[in-house]
């Protein structure tokens, strides 16, 4: 069990983390990015913190399992060479490119249930870190929580026959179906449900119904692609 240090330096049991499935694991993303402000030097922050022994402290003193790829991300390969400031914003194209990549890196740790520690870098990186954790939380505690409760009710020793009507999806994703209703699931949510059922190991059969190519000429291909995606996820494909 990981420990937390109190104000007097005495180690105390870790507070229960309600939203993390792996509360004793820390996923570290080091970001040597300074594009969002004008003062030089902040890109050296992650290296300084790591070389001082921060990650060893987390592991040895606080008993956390630390996941770190030994990379300080600068995103030099994806930021544009020409990037003029715009209405007070410093290098908006660079910030956008870097934070989009960072969002995915943070998401991968958060999706796995770890506490995500991002070491910057300037504060513009929060655009990516917050969006990455929010994406994972929406999946795990939005539709993910619903699926979790449903599977818990079914139990781990019950065979599952998944019957999926594509009109459960929003018409944006599946317009060519008999009863399209706005406000339905996104395709990502539908795929997530199918993937979660697959991961139980209890799926024995699946129906995919109400794909009607004759109803929406333009939307038929979208609906067919959505149906294919649902089947693939139920048979082991992943959201990524």
Q: How would you sum up this structure, described in words?
A:
The strands form 3 sheets. Strands 3, 4, 5 and 6 form a 4-stranded parallel beta sheet that branches. Strands 1-2 form a two-stranded antiparallel ribbon. Helix 3 runs parallel beside helix 4 and helix 5 packs parallel to helix 6. It has 2 domains: 137 residues, 3-Layer(aba) Sandwich (Arginase, Chain A), CATH 3.40.800.10; 80 residues, no CATH class. The protein contains 6 helices and 8 strands; from the N terminus they run βββααββαβαβαβα. Strand 1 and strand 2 form a beta hairpin. It is of the alpha/beta class. This is Arginase argA. InterPro entries: Ureohydrolase, Ureohydrolase_dom_sf, Ureohydrolase_Mn_BS. Belongs to the arginase family. Keywords: Hydrolase, Manganese, Metal-binding. It comes from Ajellomyces capsulatus.
């Amino acid at each position: 069990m990981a420990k937390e240090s109190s104000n007097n330096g005495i180690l105390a049991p870790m507070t229960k983390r309600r939203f993390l499935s792996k509360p004793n694991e820390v996923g570290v993303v080091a970001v040597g990015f300074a594009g969002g402000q004008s003062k030089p030097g902040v890109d050296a922050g992650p290296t300084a913190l790591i070389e001082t022994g921060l990650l060893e402290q987390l592991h040895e003193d606080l008993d956390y399992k630390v996941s770190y790829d030994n990379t300080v991300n600068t995103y030099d390969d994806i930021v544009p060479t020409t990037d003029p400031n715009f209405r007070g914003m410093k290098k908006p194209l660079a910030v956008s490119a870097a934070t989009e990549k960072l969002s995915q890196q943070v998401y991968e740790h958060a999706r796995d249930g770890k506490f995500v520690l991002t070491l910057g870098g300037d504060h513009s990186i929060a655009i990516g870190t917050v969006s990455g954790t929010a994406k994972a939380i929406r999946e795990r505690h939005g539709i993910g929580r619903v699926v979790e409760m449903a599977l818990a009710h079914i139990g781990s020793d019950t065979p599952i026959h998944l019957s999926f009507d594509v009109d459960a999806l929003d018409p944006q994703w599946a317009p060519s179906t008999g009863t399209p209703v706005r406000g339905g699931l996104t395709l990502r949510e539908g795929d997530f449900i199918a993937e979660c059922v697959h991961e139980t190991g209890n799926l024995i059969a699946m129906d995919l119904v109400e794909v009607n190519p004759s109803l929406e000429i333009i939307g038929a291909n979208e609906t067919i692609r959505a149906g294919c995606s649902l089947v693939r996820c139920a048979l082991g494909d992943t959201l990524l």
